[in-house]
């Protein structure tokens, strides 16, 4: 049985197709497959051939046994075991054997200081650090908590608030007699008792599921009604959970803190970087059981099933891997 084929991104095939036109005009270049050494007249034909090798990884590192699709990938990897890491980061103890890797690493440091002061342009890791800086150096006239960044109009209010961050203070306050968990406010203790130790529970009228609180029941009901209460003020797109809205907003702000070590491309979400890295490594963790083709993401696999196997079986017959 042939190895599962791996798909190339459409953008890569289009760019290679354009390149092949120029190659056909000159007919001076020859392209060879790094897996089987077969020659091709154009880069496009080589790319089409390369997917036939699927997930074959014949090149194995003798030191750590990690395997690779191409010999060049193994050579680059082997440098991790053999070459001196002469390129050092001035901002932390990290060292690298390639200057390109160092540049990508330094860019991560720069991106980490994304919260900048509008008055002096100094960068900070968090909004709390920025607020502290603004209060101390630019005279906002407000009292700021150095733990969480919350502002208070008077020092007495700040002192009262700071006690909520003190573990000893929390232990001495309101304790639950059922589980010994402690709370700063009595109202928080009452909510805890109601949702965790009360015999009564909140039941979904649609599916009968029992929930611990009115709030969790309301969130659960949205899965039945399709209600999306959190709206993006930029584009109007709505989300059921506020956490999903926060992630979505990164697409408008342009913040891309997750950087690929191999090519330097950056992404706003960690999951997008993980999928992108699979194009470099050749990993295809999602496999269609109907034809054996591998994919870098579940959504890519589902699209394949709908377009190629919609008359054969339902999506339930597709194998999904366990990814740690």
Automatic annotation (TrEMBL):
Cellular compartments per GO CC: nucleus
Repeat keyword on record: yes
Natural source organism: Polyplax serrata (Common mouse louse)
Name the UniProt record assigns to this protein: C2H2-type domain-containing protein
Cited InterPro entries: C2H2-ZF_domain-containing, Znf_C2H2_sf, Znf_C2H2_type
Biased composition (Polar residues): 313-324
Position of the signal peptide: none
Entry keywords, A to Z: DNA-binding, Metal-binding, Nucleus, Repeat, Transcription, Transcription regulation, Zinc, Zinc-finger
Gene Ontology MF annotations: DNA binding; zinc ion binding
SUPFAM superfamilies: beta-beta-alpha zinc fingers
Any one Gene Ontology BP term: regulation of DNA-templated transcription
Locations listed in the record: Nucleus
Domain C2H2-type span(s) in chain numbering: 31-58, 59-86, 87-114, 115-142, 143-165, 174-202, 202-229, 230-257, 258-285, 286-314
Basic and acidic residues bias: start-end ranges: 11-21
């Amino acid at each position: 049985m042939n190895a599962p084929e791996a798909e190339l991104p459409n953008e890569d095939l289009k760019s290679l197709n354009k390149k092949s036109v120029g190659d056909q005009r000159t007919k001076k270049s020859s392209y060879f497959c790094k897996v089987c050494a077969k020659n091709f007249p154009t880069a496009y034909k080589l790319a089409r051939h390369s997917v036939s090798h699927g997930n074959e990884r014949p090149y194995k590192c003798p030191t750590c046994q990690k395997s690779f699709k191409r010999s060049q990938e193994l050579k680059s990897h082997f440098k991790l075991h053999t070459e001196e890491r002469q390129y050092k980061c001035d901002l932390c103890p990290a060292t690298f054997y390639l200057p390109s890797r160092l540049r990508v690493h330094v860019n991560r440091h720069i991106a980490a200081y994304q919260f900048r002061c509008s008055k002096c342009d100094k960068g900070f890791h968090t909004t709390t650090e920025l607020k502290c800086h603004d209060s101390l150096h630019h005279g906002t006239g407000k009292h700021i908590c150095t733990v969480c960044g919350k502002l208070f109009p008077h020092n007495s209010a700040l002192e009262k608030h700071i006690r909520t961050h003190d573990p000893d203070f929390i232990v001495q306050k309101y304790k639950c007699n059922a589980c010994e968990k402690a709370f700063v406010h009595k109202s928080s203790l009452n909510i805890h008792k109601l949702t965790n130790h009360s015999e009564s529970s909140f039941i979904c009228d649609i599916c009968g599921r029992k929930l611990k609180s009115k709030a969790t029941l309301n969130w659960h009901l949205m899965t039945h009604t399709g209600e999306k209460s959190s709206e993006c003020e930029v584009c109007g797109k709505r989300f059921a959970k506020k956490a999903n809205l926060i992630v979505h907003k990164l697409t408008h702000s342009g913040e891309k803190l997750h950087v690929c070590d191999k090519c330097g491309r950056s992404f706003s979400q960690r999951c997008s970087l993980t999928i992108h890295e699979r194009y470099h490594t050749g990993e295809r963790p999602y496999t269609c059981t109907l034809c054996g083709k591998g994919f870098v993401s579940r959504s890519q696999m589902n699209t394949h099933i709908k377009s190629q196997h919609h008359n054969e079986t339902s999506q339930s017959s597709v194998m999904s891997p366990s990814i740690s």
